[in-house]
Amino acid sequence: MFGTAERWIAQRYLRPSREHGFVSVITVFALAGIALGVGTLIVVLAVMNGFRAELLDRILGLNGHLTVHAGPQGVPDYDRFTAELEGVDGVRTVTPFVDGQAMVAANNVAGGAVVRGMREADLRERALSGEQLLQGDLEGFEEGQGLAIGVQMARRMGLSVGDQLTLISPDGPATPFGTMPRMVSYHVAAIFEVGMYEFDNAVVFMPLPAAQVYFDLDGRINAVDAFVDDPERVGVVQGAFQEAVGPRGWVTSWQQANSEFFNALQVERNVMFLILTLIILVAAFNIITGLTMLVRSKGRDIAILRTMGATRGAIMRVFFLAGMTIGTLGTFVGFMLGLAFALNIDTIRRGLERLTGAELWSAEIRFLSQLPARVEVTDVTSVVAMALGLAFLATLVPAWRAAQLDPVEALRRE
User: Fold this and answer.
1) pLDDT tens, residue by residue, 22-47
2) How far is residue 147 from each of residues 155, 162, 195, 202, measured CA to CA in Å?
3) Diameter over CA atoms, the chain
4) Distance, CA of 104 to CA of 181 (rounded, Å)
5) Whose CB has fewer CB within 10 Å in the chain, the N or C terminal residue?
6) pTM for the full model?
7) Burial class (CB in 10 A: 0-12, 13-18, 19+), 263
């Protein structure tokens, strides 16, 4: 498509010269702008993808894709109940548990907590694997009265394995003086870390029999979690699942429970994409400015080339190649920098925190203890294609104007 002479002339025009130094400065700014925009956009999209994926994985690791809330009456024969629910098409596993809220207190520190009573096998399979247990273990968890608490709660309340933690519930026994709060102390059997601050700070796991006694359910459960084959298509299964549950409870999906949060993430992702695209657009305007000034400064050269037999198409290809070289080189540099930064984002974050002494990633605010990043091929491809497309459009007008230049008028002005 491009001849040897055309490539040589375009390359020569891109070299910095003393006579046209300002044009070279604009060219450098255009290249740097495209590289900065592409790299930043790749990093931002990777971080947002990683944040959504990690958050979704942590949420669905502790919560089911579908959750049945049975209310205060509970479900008595929950083994048969869960067997019925497992027969629904698309449902993989069903886990019964007791769900309640209570105050926790230890070492003169108190706070709210979500208490979940689960069987030991279900707890191991769903939530707490060996890698997530920092202290203690779950051996004999179901037979004992021990609790499993998150690492953030343990640090906040100064607890370790073997210490006592008191659960306080306002739904206690009725007395002539009013309802007395129920206060029971349990020893801490294990300390876990799932990497999500909200769970590590406020969730307490206890044996299912102990939770049934504490919340006065008398052998019943009040919640069921179900995992489906495809979490993204959970709505397809939800209708049949609700029919199987019937009047014994109401069903909510993970999409309904977290819809506002994930919708906010998607809106933020779209807005950031639009804002950072403007950086690339400004760089594309710099390409237009640089090429326009280059065309005006090379009017005599264009006239000489035309008198030597160069066609309008050849002149247009020369300046088109010069502009696309800037756009392609800037896109490539941004692509490499963006990938390198995105793949090492948490290491860079920790290095900057050590260097500046400032906290750049607050787990209390952002729910995750690490800065995640997940590079998607489709996102990178769309960013690179958009940058090359804008560079292509930016070169068309200056290249066309160069091709339309009258050699007689250009030589007369000289």
Assistant:
1) 456 777 778 888 888 888 888 888 88
2) 15, 10, 19, 13
3) 111
4) 12
5) N
6) 0.65
7) exposed
Are 394 and 31 in contact by the 8 Å Cβ rule? The answer is: no
**Residue 336 CA to chain centroid, in angstroms?**
21
197 vs 167: CA distance, rounded Å: 21
Q: In sequence order, which residues have a C-beta less than 8 Å from that of residue 397 and are 6 or more positions away?
A: 288
The two tokens of residue 382 are: 């769309």
Tell me what pLDDT residue 193 has. 84
Strand pairing of 66-69 and 223-228?
Answer: antiparallel
Strands 109-118 and 203-207: parallel
Task: Report the chain's C-alpha Rg in angstroms.
Answer: 32
Other CB atoms within a 10 A radius of the CB of residue 249 amount to 19
Alpha helix ranges (H) inside 185-258: 197-202, 208-214, 234-245, 254-257
- Helix (H) or strand (E) run with residue 164 in it: strand 164-169
User: Could you tell me the two tokens for 58?
Assistant: 């942590």
Per the CB < 8 A criterion, the answer to whether 42 and 334 are in contact is yes
What is the distance between the alpha carbons of residues 194 and 59, in angstroms, rounded to a whole number?
10
For residue 323, the number of C-alpha atoms closer than 13 Å in the C-beta half-sphere is: 33
Question: With the C-alpha atoms ordered 182, 184, 188, 190, is the resulting torsion angle positive or negative?
Answer: negative
- Provide the 8-state DSSP code for 180: P
Contact 164, 107 (CB under 8 A): no
d(C-alpha 199, C-alpha 242), whole Å = 27
CA 5 to chain centre: 48
